[in-house]
Design a protein that fits this description.
It contains 18 helices and 17 strands. With about 500 residues, the protein is an alpha+beta fold.
């Protein structure tokens, strides 16, 4: 059984248990309602929908002529009770339950206006939850100016309408959870750290070995020898795996469980921003860990260290399609680099361009010809996007040896660019070497476009459900967590 199958099975089981619990908790809300009362209620619902003039509600009830979605002859339907129970556990997804408030559950003595108000409140909450699970609770472009993600059609209301006809809205809402294994692991970890936050751990001291072992176990790192457990923790968190409790390891271990819980929550949110199908073959770049992986049929085919943008020149959150690889590329130097870096050097040394194998282009810009000093190295992935960001080689290999690799102007330098290019172009080492040795610039189209996801994962699932964390190099976590802590609607998608 695959991890995805296990995840779907657990989700289905969770729905069954949730529905059962909801039924027991809300059973007293079941009241017999006469057909005449149902007719009066339908008119009240239709009138309330007209007054509120909300597109989602109007669409949901248009063909129902006011017929309730959630109230039947017995009071609240079983689907309504299951949906309400699900909404109450929205925090398990890292969402804010306050966004999905529902009105007072009606009883036999509740008048039609109040029943209609409850009906619409649950519909609004279900629509909001569906949207938030499908696309994210926050609109990325309102949080950050450097985001470019695919536009996806929002058909959540239509899906709810269809599910309503089957009495299966709760099942539909459960199905919206991203099916990638990373999401399921992060979701489980969120509950674990939330539990730890109830009784936060005390700061560790370097001499307290027993407390260290317990802390490592709490965070999912176990091994027969404490040194091995610490090495596993260090590896997962991008630290030098020395097995010694150095200052960086101690600082990472002493981050509070609440802070970790919130960090996981915003990573869950960023997973919801992505398409549900990442592609059979795709490239995932993680900026905080400065790493890249080429995934083919769910398997990591190529992994590599990368260099990403410096904090003052951040690499954007981006999805683009790689369409070709250029071998021995010509570098068209961005105007910002020309103005800030090259012109001052040219003023000081008139021979600077020649020394760097550069020249003035026909359009007046500066180019750098292919060669050992070319800033793009021997290969560049063509992936059109509004930020002019791409994957490329570099002659400066020393930067890959450092743990701190946020150093570029925004593009992504790839340590194993030749292996990556050979794999996607289906070339042998010898064929690639020949093309590079020719010194000629050649554009090699890909047989199929490859989605490239440049993302910002600071909570990274590892073996046995343990989570590795990375520093918030651009402050994206801090901004999103501030919204969550304030329970603010400022950045809400609607």
């Amino acid at each position: 059984m695959t991890s995805t199958q296990r995840y779907i099975g657990l989700a289905a089981l969770g729905l069954i248990l949730t529905c059962g619990a909801a039924y027991l908790a809300l059973h007293t809300g079941k009241q017999e309602v006469s057909p005449e009362s149902q007719s009066h209620l339908a008119r009240a619902v239709a009138s309330a929908v007209d007054r509120q003039s909300q597109a989602g509600l109007s669409s949901l009830y248009r063909d129902r002529h006011g017929k309730p979605v959630w109230l039947d002859a017995n009071g609240t339907s079983s689907d309504a009770r299951a949906v309400m129970a699900l909404l109450q556990t929205a925090d398990r997804q890292g969402l804010m339950p306050a966004r999905y408030k529902v009105g007072i559950i009606p009883t036999a003595n509740t008048d039609d206006a109040a029943r209609a108000a409850f009906e619409l409140s649950l519909s609004r909450a279900a629509i909001a939850y569906a949207h938030d699970m499908e696309f994210g609770a926050f609109e990325p472009g309102k949080l950050f100016s450097d985001v470019s993600l695919p536009k996806r059609q929002d058909d959540t209301v239509a899906q709810i309408k269809e599910a309503a006809g089957r009495g299966a809205i709760a099942a539909y809402l459960v199905s919206l959870e991203p099916k990638v294994a990373e999401y399921a692991i992060l979701k489980a970890a969120l509950l674990r750290y939330r539990g730890a936050a109830i009784h936060p751990w005390a700061p560790l001291a370097t001499a307290d070995k027993a407390a260290l072992v317990q802390r490592l176990q709490t965070e999912g790192f176990t091994a027969p020898h404490p040194t091995d457990a610490l090495k596993a923790f260090q590896t997962a968190n991008g630290l030098d795996a020395t097995g010694r409790l150095d200052d960086k390891s101690l600082a990472s271990l002493n981050v509070s469980p609440r802070d970790r819980m919130e960090q996981i929550a915003v990573n869950l949110e960023r997973w919801r921003w992505l398409p549900r199908d990442l592609g059979r073959q795709h490239i995932m770049v993680n900026v905080p860990s400065a790493s890249l992986v080429l995934v083919k049929d769910g398997i990591a085919a190529v992994t590599s260290r990368v260099v990403v943008g410096a904090p003052d020149k951040p690499t954007p959150i981006l999805v683009a399609n790689a369409i070709a690889v250029t071998i021995n590329p010509v570098w068209h130097v961005p105007k910002s680099i020309v103005d800030k870096e090259i012109k001052p050097k040219l003023d000081a040394n008139p021979d600077y361009l020649e020394a760097k194998n550069m020249a003035v282009a026909d359009d007046g810009g500066i180019i750098q010809r292919p060669g050992p000093s070319n800033a793009l190295g021997v290969a560049k992935f063509e992936m059109p996007n509004g930020f002019a960001v791409y994957l490329h080689d570099t002659p400066s290999k020393r930067a890959f040896l450092s743990d701190e690799r946020a150093l570029s102007h925004g593009c992504v330098r790839v340590e194993r660019i030749q292996t990556l290019a050979e794999t996607v172009l289906e070339l042998t080492d010898e064929e690639m070497a020949q093309k590079i040795a020719s010194g000629e610039t050649s554009r090699q189209p890909l047989k199929h476009v490859i989605p490239v996801y440049i993302q910002y994962w600071t909570a990274i699932p590892g073996p046995q459900g343990a989570i590795g964390f990375r520093n918030d190099v651009y402050g994206r976590d801090a901004k999103m967590i501030a919204v969550l802590r304030g329970n603010s609607q400022r950045f809400a998608a609607r």
